[in-house]
Amino acid sequence: MVNKKPPLMGGFLFGNLHRLGLCRHIGLAYVKRMRILSGNLCRLHFFGIKVEIKLLKIGMESINNKILAGVAILAVVLVVVFYATKEKTKKGQEGRTDSGYKIDVLPVGSPENVIAPDLKRRVNFETADENSKLKIEEISKTLKTEKNNISLWIDLGSWRKAIGDYEGARLTWEYVVSVSPNNIVPLVNLGDLYQFYLKENIKAEDYMKRVIAKNPSYIEGYFRLYTLYSESYKEKIAEAPKALLGGLTVNPKSVDLMILLAQDYRDAGDKTNALIYYDKAISELAKIGDTARLEAVKSERATPSQ
User: Fold this and answer.
1) 167 and 150 in contact (C-beta within 8 Å)?
2) Which of 117, 137, 145, 214 has the fewest CB atoms lying closer than 10 Å?
């Protein structure tokens, strides 16, 4: 009697899934569609995610074909669930920054549904200088035909602020935030407007934190938040050094943040921490070869109690 090698299941596992009937009886409610491609490729559609797996060649002597195939499919599903969960977790973390600030992302309207500011607004025109009035007139005229020109909208807000029309500036920049939410310029402008002109520290803080959330590498954002706490928002003066520490978490090589933090600690009488951050700044300046600035910081470090 001649011994024969056991046949392979269609050459590749899953090659005959349709014949085995597993596509009908798999019993997984979330598997929307599965296709077998060219004998050795299984394509699985799971919650809109497409997965393709090249299957391994396997001998099938006495193993129950259906059980083995079912186990393999279950493994595929588990992998898809893992990545889907990972993506969901990632989305759930939006609004956080490495600096430790939690930013509440406010809903904004879509550009086509947002009402643009009134280009005929003429508040404070009677006291404005001729150049400012001319600029506002020119920009307003251009915006009538170039409604999507974000730069001009930002400029219009700046000119309105220049003539003391702070409400007009606010409306203009808030419009830009609505139609161009990833642009940090109007956020910076609004933070400045609320801090120094409208005197609303809570709103100034909100806009400055939004700047940091949008662009954590924008060093000026941390400076502005520090200035708000140390000069205007006195109820939160203890947050001033924390703003700089948050900036250094994301930008660990920023000499400017190190020096300002050292000066803050020095002025607060914390000599130990002042020396720590002076030394960090000196080390970084030595690495980049900025000799002139290095000597200046060394000199300042020598008298940290000033």
Assistant:
1) no
2) 145
Q: How far is CA 223 from the centre of its chain?
A: 19
Question: Which of 38, 58, 92 delimits the end of a domain?
Answer: 92
Q: What whole-number distance in Å separates Cα of residue 69 and Cα of residue 125?
A: 79
Residue 82 located in a structural domain: yes
Q: Is 12 domain-assigned?
A: no
The per-residue pLDDT string of the chain (306 residues; one tens digit each, 9 = 90 and over) reads: 444 444 333 333 333 333 333 333 333 333 333 343 344 444 444 444 444 444 444 444 444 454 555 555 566 556 544 554 554 444 444 443 334 444 333 444 444 568 999 999 999 999 999 999 999 999 999 999 999 999 999 999 999 999 999 999 999 999 999 999 999 999 999 999 999 999 999 999 999 999 999 999 999 999 999 999 999 999 999 999 999 999 999 999 999 999 999 999 999 999 999 999 999 999 999 999 999 999 999 999 998 565
Sheet holding 41-46, edge to edge: 31-37, 41-46, 49-54
Q: Does residue 40 belong to any structural domain of this protein?
A: yes
- Could you tell me the residue range of the domain that residue 61 belongs to? 17-92
Report yes or no on 66 lying in a domain.
yes
